[in-house]
Design brief:
The complex is a heterodimer of chains A (498) and B (195). Chain A has 498 residues and is mainly α. Chain A is built from 16 helices and 9 strands. Chain A has a domain at 250-493: Four Helix Bundle (Hemerythrin (Met), subunit A), CATH 1.20.120.1750. In chain A, β2 (128-129) and β3 form a beta hairpin. Chain A is elongated, with a radius of gyration of 31 Å. The relative contact order of chain A is 0.07. Chain B is globular. Classes of the chains: A mainly alpha (498), B alpha+beta (195). Chains A and B meet through α7 of A and α1 and α2 of B. Chain A: This is RBR-type E3 ubiquitin transferase.
Chain lengths: 498, 195
């Protein structure tokens, strides 16, 4: 290993889209902390045997090599003693570092009167201990030193307490002195360090989740954790197919720069297009009703374009046509004026806001569905089972449908980021078509799952045919939506026009 | 915190400062967490003849965490802030070892006065002057030493001298200063009121 060669981090691999999707789709495994402990130990054992060194030394070396064993192996056979010194398993004698240190400290010598005492507590060395460097300290001080390092989370890289000594503290020494509770913390720290350093593993980013994902692919790759959270292995963010990690990063940076303005506008300016009463969107789909019951005017409109809901029906052909920037503008005269204005402004902001609004809309719908609808539907499923004696298996479709809605909302959210960065052309047309189809079906499915199920809970009504009709309708839409969902992802990820 | 260790350190420091090396320290207050270190400017340096006071705060994790040190006395040095007295020295940060002591830390500060490290500066202005205009640096550092780093004895001597010049005897002046906690103006008032 050359001296300058300190950095052996693998360059961040670019998302390789030249390969077809089935090659990029490698499997992943969800592991527990205990699994990881075993994996760590078996690596330590393996290298201890291979390099004919103790397990203590093997662990220190692997830590020093940031758990990239191939590099360790290579360097080890090239210059073993240099690696031993660098990693801190062999004492460094009479080198440049100690010289400069000596100079800097002038005539610094240990206090004469304390020779024969422990250099930490200055008490007598009744019970003493030292690493192979021979720097002797009393056992009490070793204990305090090691436990303090564990408390400070810095035990993994810790060295002998003697000033300037670079010898690492081996695991056996830590286990010898740490009390039970500290031992546990040490094992945890060791394992965390291993997981963080090794590029094959990632903690599930969901707060409080302790599962670990193992995956050999380092780009954008979707992991579904055992806790049900779906995240990207490449960047550790929430899953963001079909958008790539670097695009997500760019988008998030842009959002944090502009979001305050946009959020304020979006959060405060939606009014009923007919009576101007302020309207808060508290359910997922785009079909808004200004409820008479709560003092509204009864007007029904589309949340996105504020147009009449009747114009969105399938009979007028404009069913849910709210996903295309240009089409929306062409369709609606008022918006067209706004659009000309925006274009004449020649600012990016208009375009950005358009995409952000739709991104944000799906994001909110996703959160609402996840936070409220799932719990709500589970309650209803239980009621259907308890009151109407439907077997649980018969009502499972409700939950599956909500889960599909959440997945669709998540993907749709990211398609607007994808679309924002996609230049015009044939590819964009095809993409927008797929997006529109998915959006249309998702909205419909979302509306269906939000339908009040109370009529099916009426004890006096023994006719179950209505429920089964609803079920087949929903199941049907579920299948259709799922198909569009997969078409969209496959289409984008395999290259839209190739 | 290791009060016993600090007690021992203090005893050791007092014992050794009597003989040589030009570093000593006093404990401020009752609980050993606040010290004032005193180092003499090393001979053959621009700091020669100066007495520098170091403020020392002992953290509760001592000796596993380094003591917090800064210069009370203003000093012109690349690794010490000319404004705040903050010190840039590795052993007071990452390189601290529990086998080091207040005394060894003060000694390494003294060594830092001998060997500035302008490539790892605390005060960029001073460091660039040190590198680019050594004569001006030496001149400034000497002037600062004379101006700010007077020893307590020297300050006392000057006070006595000034008061004696007003026509009082040295005996009276010393007594008055002693009675007034070395406050020159108060001592003068005392002498005047008594005479």
């Amino acid at each position: 290993m050359s001296d300058s060669d300190e950095d052996w981090d693998i360059e961040n691999e670019e998302d390789d889209f030249s390969q077809p999707i089935h090659i990029r789709q490698r499997s992943f495994t969800i592991l527990t902390f205990t699994d990881m402990s075993y994996k760590l130990q078996s690596l330590v054992d393996e290298y201890s045997e291979m390099l004919e060194i103790s397990k203590d030394e093997s662990l220190i070396l692997l830590n020093y090599y940031k758990w990239k064993p191939y590099k360790l192996q290579e360097d080890w056979f090239e210059n073993e003693s240099l690696i031993r010194i660098k990693a801190g398993i062999l004492e460094q004698l009479n080198t440049d570092t100690t010289k400069t240190r000596g100079k800097k400290l002038g005539s610094l010598k240990l206090v004469k009167g304390t020779q024969g005492c422990c250099q930490i507590c200055f008490e007598s060395l009744a019970e003493r201990d030292a690493l192979m460097c021979g720097h002797v300290f009393c056992c009490n001080c070793w204990r305090s030193y090691i436990e303090d390092l564990i408390r400070q989370n810095s035990i993994v890289e810790a060295t002998c307490p003697s000033f300037g000594c670079m010898l690492k503290i081996p695991e056996s020494m830590v286990l010898k002195y740490a009390e039970e509770e500290m031992k546990e913390k040490y094992v945890k720290l060791k394992c965390c360090n291993f997981i963080t350093m090794s590029q094959m593993y990632k903690f599930c980013p969901f707060p409080g989740c302790e599962y670990i994902a193992e995956c050999s692919y380092m780009g954008t790759y979707e992991i579904t954790c055992n806790c049900d959270f779906v995240f990207c292995f490449g960047c550790g963010e929430e899953a963001h197919r079909p958008t790539l990690c670097h695009t997500v990063k760019e988008w998030n940076t842009k959002n944090s720069a502009e979001s305050e303005n946009i959020n304020w506008i979006l959060a405060n300016t939606k009014q009923c297009p007919s009576c101007r009463k302020p309207i808060e969107k508290n359910q997922g789909c785009n079909h808004m009703t200004c409820y008479r019951e709560i003092g509204g005017c009864g007007y029904e409109f589309c949340w996105l374009c504020s147009g009449k809901w009747s114009e969105h029906s399938s009979t007028t052909g404009g069913y849910y046509k709210c996903n295309k920037y240009e089409e929306l503008v062409a369709k609606n005269e008022a918006l067209k004026c706004q659009e000309t204005q925006r274009k004449s402004d020649k600012t990016e902001l208009g375009k950005y806001m358009w995409y952000f609004e739709r991104y944000n809309n799906h994001s909110k719908a996703q959160i609402l569905a996840k936070d409220k609808q799932i719990g709500h539907i589970e309650k209803k499923m239980q009621q259907l089972h308890d009151i109407k004696q439907y077997p649980i298996g018969e009502v499972e479709f409700l939950k599956s449908a909500v889960e599909q809605v959440i997945r669709c909302r998540r993907v749709l959210k990211w398609t607007y980021v994808f679309g924002y960065y996609l230049g015009p052309g044939l590819e964009k047309n095809l993409f927008e078509h797929l997006q529109e189809k998915l959006e249309e079906n998702t909205d419909h499915l979302h509306e269906l799952v939000e339908k009040p199920l109370d009529e099916f809970l009426d004890v006096n009504n023994t006719d179950k045919s209505k429920f089964y009709h609803y079920k087949s309708d929903l199941t049907n839409y579920f299948q259709v939506t799922k198909q569009f969902f997969e078409n969209l992802l496959d289409g984008i990820e395999n290259g839209l026009t190739t | 915190m290791e009060t016993r260790r600090l007690q021992k350190e203090y005893e050791e420091l007092t014992k050794l400062s009597a003989s040589n090396s030009g570093v000593r320290a006093n404990i401020i207050g009752p609980n050993m967490t606040h010290w004032k270190g005193i180092i003499n400017g090393p001979d053959d340096t621009v700091y020669q003849g100066g007495t520098f006071i170091i403020d020392i705060i002992i953290p509760s994790e001592y000796p596993y965490k380094p003591p917090k040190m800064k210069f009370d006395t203003k000093i012109w040095h690349p690794n010490i802030s000319s404004q705040t007295g903050a010190i840039c020295l590795d052993i007071l940060k990452d390189e601290w070892s529990p086998a080091l002591t207040i005394r060894t830390a003060l000694l390494s500060l003294q060594a830092l006065l001998c060997n500035p490290e302008p490539d790892d500066p605390q005060d960029a202005v001073v460091a660039s002057q040190y590198k680019n205009n050594r004569d001006l640096f030496n001149q400034t550092a000497r002037a600062w030493t004379q101006e700010h780093a007077k020893s307590p004895e020297k300050i006392l001597e000057e006070k006595i001298k000034r008061l004696c010049e007003m026509g009082f005897t040295e005996h009276v002046v010393r007594k008055a200063l002693n009675d007034c906690a070395m406050d020159e103006a108060a001592a003068l008032n005392l002498i005047l009121s008594e005479s």
